[in-house]
Amino acid sequence: MGRPDPEEGRLPPPVKPPDGGWGWIVLLGCFVITGFSYAFPKAVSVYFKELMKDFHVGYSDTAWISSIMLAMLYGTGPVCSIMVNQFGCRPVMLIGGLLASSGMILASFTTNIIELYLTAGVLTGLGMALNFQPSLIMLGTYFDKRRPLANGLAAAGSPVFLSSLSPLGQVLLEKFGWRGGFLIMGGLLLNCCTCGAVMRPLDMGMKRKMEKAQDKYEAKEMLPIGGKSEEGISTTDGTKKAKKAKKKPKKGKKLLDFSIFSNRGFIIYTISKFILVLGLFVPPILLVNYAKDTGVPDTEAAFLLSIIGFIDIFARPACGMVAGLKWVRPHVAYLFSFAMLFNGLTDICSARASNYTGLVIFCVFFGISYGMVGALQFEVLMAIVGSQKFSSAIGLVLLIEAFAVLIGPPSAGRLVDALKNYEVIFYLAGSEVVLSALFLAMATYCCLNRGKKKECPPEKNPSVGGGSDTEEAESDVQEAEEHSSDNHQPAHSTDNAVVAASEEANHVAEEQSGEGGGCPEGDGEVLARDSCNTDQTVERDRF
């Protein structure tokens, strides 16, 4: 059976991730967005001393600016998911870039700290959130086989921008003051709009082909040949009705898909990530003060964070390359567990570091493990839920992480004030990270792998969850059949569309069965099913 030809009026095949091409431009945009989203709230801290002098407030009052930014970045995840599912990634990112920029520009004209909270905190934080989440979604649609490497390279934007935005902010503060610095920073955030503009939908080319094929088919059918003139007219009417039906939104479309909570792999990932965030950010936040209390000079203590950032820049892409290897990618969840275990043990082993050399060694190993966690966290989530449900999954995960962010670091700070002992805090933070690693590894092995073997017999041609080619082609068949059943006089063009779509589904199924049971080479994380119903999302073979 040959592949349908668009020139003959048949449906073109579903679009596959190109793993390159324009995807590299999308990756560059995601690199910039990730850098701004994670580094900007930290880079703003260079302005805090001037803000304290002008507004006559304390350090804790100014620190709320960064906290509000991070809270908006994490807490507005479901809102971003709804907007992406409704309007698409590109429009949402353009709006987000304008909000982020306008927030910093308006902040340069504020007269009190409350106005700063609303402008630099809420507006800018919301704008960055509307950019961060859609950029990751677009990255997942453009990359499949090279997705671990793409995620690692995009995640490297965070340490790169952190090491550049902080010195830049200091220079702007010295030359233009904090108001001028905020104004220029707002102009820099307009680059988020540029990054949003390059996020071209992957199926744009397919839509153009379908329109050309349909127009050509209409022209052929409208020619009256003998007694078939009435049939040609009915065909044209049926085609017009089909166009109107396509413009209407699908009945089953959900703005936020809560069905992912029925996926045990997603539940395990979410619980593990919540425990991880409780302790992951505590050591870098307390590191400088910890070093100063051990007698390290201020300049050398601040340099410790630069060491972590420098190591982090190279650790993330390197980990992405390792995760993309054929013999590693099926077990990427265990690699993520190892990264978390490595990070937690680093915290515990460094708790008694009493000199500068010991702290430098800690920063090297912490930078490596922290980079591994940053490179793998979204790759594992993409592999668990698939590209079709990733927009809803990441929004819900970020919302849950927001609670952990608001619990972990503030609680650690209060314990330091009460106990006057950093050693206990490092032990506690490391234990939380180790617990999350052990939970993910054990739950993945016991609940997913063993449960799948008991519940589900092996299938010859399983469909991959998360929007496979066969699944999309079969959905086209169902839509065409529903449309034909609604019309009392079904049009000849609709019947042709049904036949062409069914042929495409069979052709893609034959190709996938020839490649090894429907699973593309290099597929990452796999899921365990709750049931063997083929109507539900079908899990992948193994971790």
From TrEMBL:
Residues 23-448 form the Major facilitator superfamily (MFS) profile domain. Residues 487-496 have a biased composition (Polar residues). The keyword Acetylation does not apply. The keyword Transport applies. It holds the Pfam family MFS_1. Residues 469-479 have a biased composition (Acidic residues). The chain crosses the membrane at residues 21-40, 63-84, 91-110, 116-137, 181-202, 266-291, 303-325, 332-353, 359-378, 390-412, 424-448. It is found in: Cell membrane. One of its GO terms (cellular component) is basolateral plasma membrane. Keywords: Cell membrane, Membrane, Symport, Transmembrane, Transmembrane helix, Transport. It comes from Sagittarius serpentarius (Secretary bird). NCBIfam families: 2A0113. This is MOT3 protein. Belongs to the major facilitator superfamily. Monocarboxylate porter (TC 2.A.1.13) family. One of its GO terms (molecular function) is symporter activity. It is a multi-pass membrane protein. It comes from the Eukaryota. Its main location: membrane.
